[in-house]
Amino acid sequence: MPHLAPFLLSFLPLQDWPSWRGPNHDGSSPARALPSELARDKGVRWAAELPGPSAGTPVILGERVFVSAAVEEAGLLLALCYSRASGELLWEDQAGSGHGADQGSPTRRDPRSDYASPSPVTDGARVVFFFGNGDLVCYELAGKRLWAKNLQAEHGAFAFQWTFGASPTLWDGRLVLPVLQRDQPTDGNGGGDAAAKPIPSFLLALDAATGAVLYKEARASEARMESLESYATAIPFTGEQGRKELLVAGGDVITGHDPATGKELWRWGTWNEGHREPWWRLVPSPVVGGGHVLVCAPKKAPVYAVRLGGSGVLDASAVAWQSAGRANPISSDVPTPLFLDGRFYVLSDVQGALSRVDPATGKADWTIELPGRSPWEASPTGADGKVYCLSHAGLALVVDAKTGTILSRAELGEPDDENIRSSIAIAHGALFLRTNTTLFCLGS
After folding, report:
1. Which of 286, 293, 294, 429 is deepest in the core (most CB within 10 A)?
2. Low-confidence spans in the chain with pLDDT less than 70
């Protein structure tokens, strides 16, 4: 069984959406015949009631849809599986261990998010759920629990100002999580034990079949305080010469790592020059396209396109281009950009704009203003010449990828909905979209 997962992963149908950023790890899908118009009363194949919210994106494998949920009133963290065809609940499990409840709610550590923020991941043989309190649970596809552990219990208390939210990466039978955190205790607001000793950042890899630790590799950084913290997911990448890398952003740098050992292959940085701003935690994950990896510096700072294929510590020549930042709409504090059909799409939550960007030059083909007053923090996804976005209030947009024309907008959230941050998943000719209370399957 340990050797089965890499074989299955290489043959997963591209119409599936096996991880947070989809089959290509860049937010795109090869799907066609997707809806150009969204509405609550049109094109809804089914709508399933959810027991609680989550910022995690639905994961789709064959006839199954996997989602997580945090049920605050009951103190539960749930792993859930629905039928892709009908929306019927196939199985659920109380995945939370209760770890961390002595410092607050069993489902959250801060008011902005809950422990169900990470997305599940599957390799075709199993599905893994991770929660921000450190609970990591692996299941057979039919719902039988294979193994479970808590990363804080085994590796020390997390040291984050907010709730840890990176999604796990499952690649070649290895389950990988970058734990990039501050090197000092926090005040208890959202993570860490105020009395604990500092914990250096590390890249952790487990055997997906058994949960056994394969390596725990230190990940050094010259950043300080909150700027050491990253909420980004490790992104798999295979270069032209077949070199496999895990791309990790945070701590004022981006690094490439050997997925077999965790050893660092290269690094570039910093976007945090001079006095080293201490409050620049990083949220967006890297995205690859056009021979570059895009990394978004936080809080209106620029986006950088770094050339791939390097080794060691890279100098300024590794940067192909950077955006102007600050007043420029090509900037992102939270959403991870999309790469679709040869173009980057950068959703700027700080400017309320969506831009189509040439990967060779960094110039915008177009920029549009996003409607509504609610924040846009869910990462954009795309396929079939369309870009799909979702706001905190559940306003869903369909944007023409070539022209930037808004083709459709639909209020899918409830009147009092807020903090909807799950990206829209694309699979088997349909869109899978979750609000705080409902999982929608939308398609013709």
Report:
1. 294
2. 1-14, 102-103, 187-198
